[in-house]
């Protein structure tokens, strides 16, 4: 397969004339305009059967629109789609599934209160006998190495496990083309490698795969061909195996990338966040209890919390942010030496703490409120945006405008609804909102999940700058590259426990990988686990 | 097979047009119903919707009827915004009338100018008290406020019935189940001579403006909206849901109580076993008709008030049953909800089949 598709790159539109085997999917001159924005501008490319094809581009480059057109969610204004060489009209996702297109969404569309099996059944086009479906599910899980208990309720699952449901759901339909949108954001190196094995096996069986990711070293290790979008246009194609992550990133954003600037050696100040013996019984049925967490973050320090999803990171975040009640002594969390464990979020914020949760929509921001209102949401006390119980419109708006300007949030303005922003832009807005409040402590969960390279490096730089001003920063992340790129120290969470902190300079990816797996005591006889793609170089440091 | 398919982007204009559409369809279906009843539909609709407001007295009556609807609906809409479903405004209205009216009866020979303001306070307290019970049950025991507030309505109306049949019955009233008439000092002043438009109507306008400021300009209104739209975000920033339950039920109850007091201290002038033709329930429709927005509620209140007037007139001139009023209100709510559903979803016929084959 690779021999025929190795280096076609940008002249994809011409392929049909060569009389070769028809592409699984060919996109020809697809154009889609939204009011005030040309999302897709004459896009053409093709995906062969059995090919793993990367779609690269920054947020707003038009990837999502293109995927929606292929999946029948949107209709192109111009241009056509060819499936197996024949023009097709895809009117709905239902049509797309019938044809053999499977899509794993970036944001999962799952019913939290239903079981894995029920969620899968809901997505099937035709209703089947549940016992037979269970059989099929178990089989697919086994064949492709996707362990998942069909009877678990979705709300008890980690993000990584939820993604597996989506993948299994697609595989059950025997897709000829599988589209994955940012699939690895939440996986450990080991899980990523497992997913890649699954994908390679699928490709070997002749399934075409369209892989959308910002993690360029993954694209490099997985994909045979890439199409790069910028501003709604195809700006080029390449063979990722022949490129560096840096060169591809630069192609995406159309300019040179700079590595995060650490501004020389850092001086750490006093301990600003002091967690001691924090234990917590999760109030969710399958949540993770926290067991005796000890953690100190000094001013100017960026502490990373690594770990596989669902090992207590959510509970830790909620405990620090004051979202859940803590029954222990007020002493077990101290901010700037004040016991705060019994305080709610507002009093903690008044002491100078700021928090950015993992989920943007509905947790960090209210999607159907304007950016102004979302700026007000967490900042109204610290930035004095209210007077006599009324919202002060002018300062609120100028604060929102300031966030938009300082953090280069691409939007129509402060009155745009938060939900209308792309993931990366909304994340920049939320991070900016907290940073501009000049916090003494920032706790941030998954700062760049689902965010493109340009936005991610902007957020990383902002965190580094914040720390250099003396703020203590705690970064909870499942992205090891990120932790390596910005953190001074790292701790690993596993089953609700926390490892002792290790300076970033002394720790290896292997060691962290082992700690993530919970092998605290058996470091000696652990298997070789460092996956090759992690070593491929990190975009931000390349 | 008929399916509802969510619309990917729903029209913002339709959100505001759907009440208009619902009203037009109500008129259409109403006309059909009238013709089935053997009436000329155009005459009947004219009698129902135009005749009542064809003279200045009719218009003044429209304001009188709209007053309690608007006051109650503004209060309810605050709760609905925060996902607090207070269905028991009718009971809170009744309790307000009992508390405030009770004060007027206790001081039935008073001429003090302080009596009326004191009645306002008691009326509001009575309604808020009746709203506090579901709030307590919800926050302490997680009992569903829809059920508790609704059930308390029947308790309140039966309590009023007991009072006017027993202890509070007018000793000079020939055994009618009515209280003494309120003293003059306990009656609302008429603000427009020759009509029944009373001080409460002015208060309703004030409530609309205050409600609008509260909802869109105040920090607490902001909290209400966040709690309703994104409970997790509310928790994240420390807007406590329990506090919103208390606030909205006390506010909604207090306003309903005031509306009840205005009825007994205004158009009625005494306590009777029946003091409201279901204003507390109709206000729920008004709240949704007005898109849970105080200004919209003002218009919604006027429209629903018209159905009361039209119903009365239809009884008198056309000999139609009083149930026609309820019928129209029901049809209107039905179409309103249907329009809302269709704004968010589209109807698809036929079983799902593939349409994506090669051409």
Task: Characterize the structure shown.
- The complex is a heterodimer of chains A (542) and B (359).
- With 542 residues, chain A is of the alpha/beta class.
- Chain A has helices at residues 2-5, 63-70, 93-99, 116-123, 130-143, 159-171, 189-204, 216-222, 245-253, 313-321, 345-350, 371-379, 393-406, 423-435, 453-468, 480-486, 509-516; strands spanning 25-34, 37-47, 52-57, 78-83, 86-88, 101-104, 177-181, 208-212, 225-230, 233-238, 271-280, 290-298, 302-306, 333-335, 338-339, 353-356, 386-387, 390-391, 441-445, 472-476, 489-494, 497-498, 502-503.
- In chain A, strands 13, 16, 19, 20, 21, 22 and 23 form a seven-stranded mixed sheet that branches. A six-stranded mixed sheet of chain A has the order 6-7-8-3-9-10, sandwiched between helices. Chain A has a four-stranded antiparallel sheet with strand order 2-1-4-5, covered by helices on one side.
- In chain A, α14 packs parallel to α15.
- Chain A is globular and about 70 Å long.
- With 359 residues, chain B is mostly helical.
- Chain B has 13 helices and four strands.
- Chain B has helices at 12-36, 41-50, 56-81, 89-106, 115-141, 145-165, 199-217, 219-229, 231-237, 241-268, 279-289, 294-318, 323-344, and strands spanning 2-6, 178-181, 270-272, 345-349.
- In chain B, the strands form two sheets. Chain B has a two-stranded antiparallel sheet with strand order 1-4.
- Chain A binds chain B through residues 72-74, 83-84, 86-92, 94-96, 98-99, 125, 321-323, 344-347, 349, 355, 357, 359, 362-369, 373, 376-378, 380, 386, 389-391, 393, and chain B through 8, 213, 217-220, 222, 225-226, 229-230, 232-233, 235-238, 240, 352, 354-359.
């Amino acid at each position: 397969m690779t021999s025929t598709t190795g280096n076609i790159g940008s002249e994809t539109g011409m392929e049909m004339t060569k009389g070769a085997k028809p592409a699984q999917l060919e996109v020809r001159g697809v154009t889609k305009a939204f009011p005030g924005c040309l999302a897709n501008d004459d896009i053409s490319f093709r995906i062969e059967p059995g090919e793993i094809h990367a779609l690269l581009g920054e947020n707003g480059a038009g990837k999502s629109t293109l995927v929606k057109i292929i999946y029948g969610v949107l209709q192109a204004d111009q241009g056509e789609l060819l499936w197996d060489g024949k023009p097709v009209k895809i009117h709905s996702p239902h049509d797309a599934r019938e044809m053999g297109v499977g899509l794993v969404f970036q944001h999962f569309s799952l019913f939290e209160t239903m079981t894995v099996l029920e969620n899968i059944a809901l997505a099937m086009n035709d209703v089947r006998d549940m016992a037979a479906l269970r059989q099929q599910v178990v089989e697919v899980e086994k064949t492709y190495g996707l362990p998942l208990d069909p009877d678990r309720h979705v709300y008890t699952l980690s993000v990584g496990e939820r993604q597996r449901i989506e993948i299994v759901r697609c595989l059950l339909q025997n897709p000829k083309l599988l589209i994955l949108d940012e699939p690895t954001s939440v996986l450990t190196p080991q899980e990523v490698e497992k997913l890649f094995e699954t994908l390679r096996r699928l490709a070997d069986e002749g399934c075409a795969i369209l892989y959308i990711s910002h993690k360029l070293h993954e694209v490099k290790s997985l994909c045979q061909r890439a199409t790069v979008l910028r501003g709604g246009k195809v700006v080029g194609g390449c063979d990722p195996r022949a490129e560096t992550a840096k060169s591809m990133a630069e192609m995406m954003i159309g300019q040179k990338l700079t590595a995060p600037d650490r501004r020389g050696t850092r001086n750490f100040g006093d301990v600003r966040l002091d967690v001691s013996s924090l234990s917590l019984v999760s109030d969710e049925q399958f949540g993770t209890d926290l067991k005796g967490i000890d953690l100190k973050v000094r001013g100017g320090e960026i502490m990373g919390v690594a770990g596989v999803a669902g090992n207590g990171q959510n509970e830790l975040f909620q405990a620090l942010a004051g979202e859940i009640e803590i029954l222990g002594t007020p002493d077990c969390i101290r901010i700037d030496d004040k016991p705060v464990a019994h305080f709610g979020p507002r009093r903690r914020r008044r002491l100078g703490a700021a928090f950015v949760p993992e989920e943007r929509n509905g947790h960090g921001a209210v999607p159907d409120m304007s950016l102004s209102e979302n700026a007000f949401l967490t900042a109204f006390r610290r930035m004095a945006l209210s007077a006599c119980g009324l919202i002060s419109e002018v300062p609120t708006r100028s604060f929102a405008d300031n966030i938009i300007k300082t953090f280069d949030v691409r939007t129509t303005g402060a009155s745009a609804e938060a939900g209308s922003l792309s993931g990366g832009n909304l994340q920049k807005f939320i991070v900016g909102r907290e940073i501009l409040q000049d916090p003494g402590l920032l706790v941030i969960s998954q700062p760049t999940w689902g965010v493109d390279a340009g936005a991610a490096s902007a957020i990383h730089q902002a965190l580094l700058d914040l720390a250099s001003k003396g703020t203590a920063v705690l970064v909870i992340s499942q992205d090891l590259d990120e932790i390596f790129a910005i953190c001074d120290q790292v701790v690993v969470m596993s089953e609700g426990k926390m490892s002792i902190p290790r300076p970033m300079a002394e720790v290896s990816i292997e060691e962290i990988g082992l700690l993530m797996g919970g092998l605290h005591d058996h470091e000696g006889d652990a298997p070789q686990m460092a996956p090759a793609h992690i070593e491929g170089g990190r975009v931000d440091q390349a | 097979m008929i399916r509802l398919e969510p619309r990917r982007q729903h029209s913002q204009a339709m959100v505001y047009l759907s009440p208009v559409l619902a009203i037009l369809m109500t008129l259409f279906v109403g006309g059909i119903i009238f013709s089935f009843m053997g009436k000329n539909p155009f005459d009947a609709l004219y009698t129902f919707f135009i005749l009542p407001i064809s003279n200045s007295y009719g218009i003044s009556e429209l304001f009188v009827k709209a007053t309690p609807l608007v006051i109650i609906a503004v209060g309810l809409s605050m709760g609905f915004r925060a996902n607090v479903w207070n269905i028991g405004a009718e009971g809170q209205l009744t309790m307000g009338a009992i508390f405030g009216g009770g004060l007027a009866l206790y001081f039935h020979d008073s001429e003090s100018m302080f009596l009326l303001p004191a009645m306002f306070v008691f009326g509001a307290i009575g309604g808020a008290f009746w709203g506090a019970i579901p709030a307590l049950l919800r926050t302490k025991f997680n009992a569903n406020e829809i059920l508790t507030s609704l059930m308390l309505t029947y308790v309140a109306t039966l309590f009023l019935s007991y009072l006017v049949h027993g202890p509070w019955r007018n000793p000079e009233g020939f055994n009618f189940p009515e209280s003494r008439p309120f003293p003059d000092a306990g009656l609302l002043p008429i603000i427009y001579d020759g009509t029944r438009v009373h001080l409460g109507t002015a208060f309703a306008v004030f409530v609309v403006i205050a409600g609008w400021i509260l909802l869109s300009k105040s920090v607490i209104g902001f909290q209400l909206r966040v709690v309703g739209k994104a409970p997790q975000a509310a928790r994240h920033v420390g807007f406590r849901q329990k506090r919103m339950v208390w606030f909205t039920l006390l506010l909604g109850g207090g306003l309903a109580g005031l509306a009840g007091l205005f009825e007994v201290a205004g158009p009625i002038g005494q306590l009777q076993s029946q003091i409201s033709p279901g204003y507390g329930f109709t206000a729920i429709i008004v709240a949704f008709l007005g898109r849970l927005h105080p200004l919209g509620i003002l218009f919604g209140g006027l429209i629903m008030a018209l159905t009361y007037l039209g119903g009365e007139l239809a009884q008198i001139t056309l000999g139609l049953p009083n149930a026609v009023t309820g019928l129209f209100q029901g049809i209107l709510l039905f179409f309103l909800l249907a329009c809302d559903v269709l704004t968010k979803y589209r109807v698809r016929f036929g079983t799902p089949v593939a349409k994506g084959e090669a051409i």
